Amino acid sequence: MAVSPDQGSTGGGDAVTLGGSHFTGTVGVRYGSRQAASFTVVSDTTTATITPSGHGPVPVSVTTAGGTGVVGTFYYLPPPSFLVLPPSAGPLAGGNTVTLAGLGLYTTSEIRFGTQAAGFTVDSDGRLTVTVPAALSVGPVAVTVRTRGGIAGGVTYTYLGPPSITAVTPDSGSVDGGNLVVIIGTAFSYATSVSIGGTPVISYRIASDTEIDALVPAGALGPADVSITTLGGTTTASGAYTYLGRFAVLGGQSVTSTGLSGVTGDLGVSPGVSVTGFPPGQVNGTIHISDAAAVQAHADLVATYDNAAGRIPDAGVPGDLGGLTLAPGVYNAASSIGLTGTLTLDAQGDRNAEWIFQIGSTLTTATASRVLLSNGAMARNVIWQVGSSATLGTDTAFVGRILAAVSITVNAGVTVSGQTLARDGSVTLDTNTIVRPW
Fold it and tell me: What pairs with residue 344 in β-bridges?
């Protein structure tokens, strides 16, 4: 004798086949105390039935003119219940696995995410491992589980598109890291990792679906990729962050100061070993004399100088920059240039705007000249690549990173928001204020 299947929903309505003998002339089929919803005698040994509603295990009996006999037991199962263990989200392509936990899952026969069937493994009555199917569009879908006890739903799973990065603010900082950046983009809510230059950030906070705040790790001088991985995928913004040197002043042979110069940032020399005038000059940073940091800074200076010199110019510039307003770009002067009066650098609202000045020979500023930043221009984004030496005249207010092939002379009263970096020769200061702008 047999009852097949011997399990079904408490709500009834399941098709069950009874196997036995002497079924011809059957007048009644009961599941426990309840009549079957319907039955059909297929043969003397087989009867097809539809179950009534019920609860728990019940005997299945068949009544004929010859009497009543029990052919087996049918087990009424309650509908399953479940939830998707976090994270209940993943990529449009699917293929990831999630865990469903609940009750009454042992007889699971089908799982659907929206309209798509999912592959699954029954781990136990309370646990399923599911391979998520692909979807056509992002957003939540209903998850349903079918068992012999019925169908359960009321649970959602969210399909995610890959993230995107639109801005990193600020977009540069010291190679030492440790500063805070704000990354703006889309689809950040399920972020699992953030890296800059291939190195995981020190920490990060998901401020919203469009903002992540991160502490920058230490890195190598130059541009670095910013990558974010979420449950929806990975995006990389190439060169979106730039690591800048820690040095405000660097000489190839020596650094000399007269008077009370103040330097914010590191000061160093390499391959030379001479630093004089500190004190009375003050360094709000560290003095490096041909140590590992200075050697590396000199190598970085050489690389940055060569990179700036190798850029393709956008335009030429005249012998004197005074009175000009320049948009971002690469500007070239075959020989020397001077600055008398005011040079204005207009970023036109782009805080990432860059200026590179390629100067074939010398850079000289007149007394009380200045470089003025306008409309979001940033000092760290201005490079002066000088083919020989630079001389900043008395009381000049200068902006940018001076990369001189030979030497830099900074006369009395000059302020520099930037760097003074001399590749082969010396940096000479005289009661100046030099601040590294990051």
Answer: 325, 372
* pLDDT tens for each residue of 182-241: 999 999 999 999 999 999 999 999 999 999 999 999 998 888 999 999 999 999 999 999
Residue pair 393/322 in contact (Cβ under 8 Å)? The answer is: no
Residue 9 near residue 56, CB atoms below 8 Å = no
Question: Residue 306: which residues within 8 A CB-CB, separation 6 or more?
Answer: none
Q: Which of 360, 349, 366, 356 is nearest to 331 (CA)?
A: 356
- Per-residue confidence (pLDDT) for residue 1, from 0 to 100: 61
Structure tokens at 61: 């009996």
Break the chain down into helix, strand, coil percent, rounded to 5.
Answer: 5, 55, 40
Residue type, 200: P
Task: Please tell me the distance from the alpha carbon of residue 39 to that of residue 17, in angstroms, as a whole number.
Answer: 9
The residue type found at 52 is P
Cis bond before residue 133 (omega within 30° of 0): no
pLDDT in tens, 51-78: 999 999 999 999 999 999 999 999 999 9
Q: Is the pLDDT of residue 96 over 80?
A: yes
Question: Distance between CA 78 and CA 59 in Å, rounded?
Answer: 18
Name the strands in the sheet holding 363-365, side by side, starting at the edge strand that comes first in the sequence.
274-276, 254-258, 426-430, 408-410, 390-392, 363-365, 337-339
Q: CA 408, CA 132: separation in Å to the nearest integer?
A: 64
Structure tokens at 138: 């992002």
Q: Which residue has the tokens 């940018």?
A: 400
> Which of these, 95, 100, 92, 112, lies nearest to 190 by C-alpha position?
92
- CA–CA separation, 165 vs 183, rounded Å? 7
Among residues 260, 269, 264, 262, which one has the least CA distance to residue 248? 264
Q: What is the CA radius of gyration of the chain?
A: 38
Q: Nearest CA to 223 among 238, 239, 236?
A: 239
Predicted TM-score (pTM) of the model is: 0.72
